[in-house]
Amino acid sequence: MGRRKVQCKYCNRVLSGGVWHLKQHLVGIKGEVVPCSRVSSKVRIQFCQYMKEKETSKVNITRRRQEIREELSAPPRRSVDAIHLSRGRQTIDLDDDEEEHFRRASQASRRSFAEEDYLRRTG
Ligand SMILES: [Zn+2]
C-alpha cells in the first residue's frame, strides 16, 4: 500500500495512485485526481508534452509491432488462406456429392419401397 503513495513536491499532497496519479495531478487531468494548484504552468506543459510523447511513442511501438507481426505472418498466412480456399472448394464438392448421393439413395430406397409395395399388392 505504502509504496504506491507518492507525494507531490509542489503542493505536498499525497497521492495514493502512484506515479501515474502524480502525473495526472501535475498535468491537471480531471477525474481521478485533484489537479495540482501549486505547479507552474511551465512544468504542467512539460508534463503534458511528456505524456503526449509517451502516448505517441506507445502508439508507434504498437503500430510497429503490428507491422512486424504482419510482415512475419504474411507469407504463411497467405498460403494458409490458399489451403483453406482449396480445402473449402473440396469440402463444398464433397458436400454436394454427399447430398447428391444421399438424395439418390433416398430416392432409390423410396422407389424400391414403392416397388416392393406394388409387388406386394399385385403379387
Ligand atoms: Zn501538487
UniProtKB/TrEMBL annotation:
Domain of life, source organism: Eukaryota
Renumbered residue ranges of the record's region Disordered: 67-86, 96-123
Compositional bias (Basic and acidic residues): 112-123
Protein name: BED-type domain-containing protein
Natural source organism: Colocasia esculenta (Wild taro)
The organism's taxonomic lineage, starting at the top: Eukaryota, Viridiplantae, Streptophyta, Embryophyta, Tracheophyta
